[in-house]
């Protein structure tokens, strides 16, 4: 950054407008800002800093102090800086918030001026404090704090960079050398390590929750060991593998218990089976006694029924000859029945075949029509598709054309507004010109009146003088004491008061005319500029058409372009519709062609099927005729009816005989069976031994209760084993994930502590600081060239590398080597003059390294406020020598100082002079 011109108005000690032309100081070399204390030397640096960043150069001056106390109440406070950066020229202006007085016709009033900022370059203008601040950071690549460290070293802040901590230097170097990405990487590693640690804690919590959910009976030998695991205060001390083995033992123990309970239940079930068998025997003995009495009663009744059934059977057996004749008739008719069925089946088949032929003929007709219609449709679609081959080709060009038209409409609309604004300004100008003409006419009238009165007043001077003469008193004009014919004052002679009033009215009219002239000229200049700017736009947009012709054509041009935009929109929509239709056809035509092929196959299949059915129809008709020739009954149903009647007669007679025989034989068998049952029951009663049924039922009840208890125990064991069996894989998986996460965390934590400077017994050097150390070493190397030169080779910078830095960050701390006594100590131990030389050397070293770094900040200027007063004569000569060397390298170095030697040695000076009442002023002296 190189300042070109600084304009200060009502700022600091400067009451009026002051311009500092840095361009006259050249692009390199030293210049001195000199003047007595309080004159405003530092205010020049304040103005530069305020223009760029909105704050003064030092830390002890607030924005509220920037308004000049010497300024006229109506004066405007602002700072404007023209500067060059990277070959481009920028102009920035700012004003602080302040109160000033504004003159109105009704009197002066206080006004509050809000803070504002504006930055302009060749093609752009940025307004607003926030926007300007952001743009300045982009241009200079530093903020105010960094600028104060490396470019403008303010009074009282000179030692900040020298005595800065590692953390402060990291913040300064971060933006200068663009190392923020290393900070981002370091933070990402730290976040990942923290996330891994959180995942490990979650997995441990999962293991703890599953441990708490394990079910173990209190009487188990494993219960104390499990409780010991649960009682651990730190879950990280848990032996998960031991816990898994313990859980496996619990599951196995429950499985063994389940088997034991199963065996006990099976043993009880065997006993229950035997008891149930004995109970069944006892119940069976009682039932036999009851069955014997009932059977004896039944036998007596059945014998009476047997005699009656014998009589019925003998009667039915006498009808057997009639039954033989019916069998012969049935046999004859049954031989012909298949022919009836065959004929009827053929008739039914013939009807179905005829119906199917009719159906398939209708289907064939429909398929042939669809085939014809689809063929025509496909041809139509293909023809349409050919017309859509170029769909979408024009869309891009149409879109570009529409965007051009829309841009022209916007430009023409803006041009129209500017034209209307210009017309309004012209009307105001015309009125201002009329106001001037009226004021000029009023002035001419007042001037003529004054001149007339003045002339009359002069003409009447003799009469006025004569009126004061007295006889014997010498005339002031001729000296005569005799006044024989004194002049007389006419009645029209103006008085002195009238002449003075006419002069005052003339002066007021003249002032009003001049003000009206100035207002008209100012507005005329504005109108001229606006008209010239408008004419430039017209030259671009309307091929040089004049402003006077603009109104007649602008609305038409906007309307024409709006119409063109609508037309282009319709064309684009048409292209979109064609693209969509083309896509639809590309999808539908292959589908319809496939459907057409399927339809052709279907038509051929139908034709073949109809031919086959027609042949089948002819064969059926012939078969029906052959069967009808030998059959008596009209159809199978009639023949079947006759056959059924014959069979029914025969079957009834046969069934009656069979039934009578079966009933007789069954009843006879029943009687014999009952007699056998009675004999068997009598034998069972005589052979059976007595059984205690009540004792057996009590034993069954006890066995059933024991079985239920064991079954409940078994189910509880099964449930517990299933529950623990579910927990086992969860703990295994959590342990596996925990092991993997722990393994990854170990090296991630190590990497994190390495990159964040957290290794035990190591310097706390973060990764970003490690990267910056290489830049810092180069800065130190460049700074040592100056420091050794300014200290007669006594002092040399060295980056501190001592271990054991505790919890503070390290890596960018700075020490000095004292070559006179061979010691190494902190830079904070230097004396005032030594610190100044060290700080100056470090600032130059940083400036050189920034200039040398690719893409670094461009430092074409350096501002140093005071500090030289602490140097002895020899040190001052050494510092001045280094400053001149620095200034020769295409760098402009400005110094504020009271030191006489500097005034005598530096040829280019900005001299600030303080006045008692009107503030300070600035002059440039370029050859002292």
Brief summary of the model shown:
The protein has 928 residues and is α+β, with helices and mostly antiparallel strands. It has 18 helices and 17 strands.
Report on this structure.
The protein has 18 helices and 17 strands. It is of the alpha+beta class. The protein has a 6-stranded antiparallel sheet with strand order 2-1-4-5-8-9, covered by helices on one side. Strand 6 (98-104) and strand 7 form a beta hairpin. The longest helix is centred in the middle third of the chain and has 79 residues, at 550-628. 23% of the residues are buried. The model has no long low-confidence stretch (mean pLDDT 82).
Key features?
single chain, alpha+beta, six-stranded mixed β-sheet, 11% strand
List the helices and strands and how they pair.
Elements: E1 2-11, E2 14-21, E3 29-35, H1 41-53, E4 78-85, E5 88-95, E6 98-104, E7 107-113, E8 116-120, E9 125-127, H2 129-140, H3 144-150, E10 152-153, H4 166-176, H5 180-213, H6 223-230, H7 240-317, H8 320-387, H9 395-459, H10 461-466, H11 496-541, H12 550-628, H13 636-687, H14 693-755, H15 767-790, E11 795-799, E12 814-818, E13 823-826, H16 832-852, E14 861-865, H17 873-888, E15 892-896, H18 900-905, E16 909-914, E17 920-925
Parallel strand pairs: 3-15, 3-16, 10-14, 14-15
Antiparallel strand pairs: 1-2, 1-4, 4-5, 5-8, 6-7, 8-9, 11-12, 12-13, 16-17
